[in-house]
Amino acid sequence: MHIRHVLITFLKYYQQKRGLIIHAWCLMPSHLHMVISSRNGESLSAIMRDFKKHCNKKLIEEIKLIQ
User: Fold this and answer.
1) pLDDT at residue 13 in the model
2) What's the superkingdom here (predicted)?
């Protein structure tokens, strides 16, 4: 799986399961920019903490497969 697909998969999951609203986003070669809000009032810092934790694990696995 390409790294960009990992990010997109996680973004879709967090939209559906955690109420993340993505108003705008831009995937750069080394990072991601987003303008976001929460549909269900959950703290954005909690959503992003979990997103980074789980997404980073999967990204590391994918990078190891490439090398």
Assistant:
1) 94
2) Bacteria
pTM of the complete model: 0.81
Q: Residue 7 contacts by C-beta under 8 Å, 6 or more apart in sequence?
A: 27, 32, 55, 59
- pLDDT of 1 reads 58
**Residues in Cβ contact with 23 at an 8 Å cutoff, skipping those fewer than 6 apart:** 35, 36, 37
Residues spanned by the domain of 22: 3-66
Q: What is the pLDDT of residue 3?
A: 84
d(CA 53, CA 61): 13
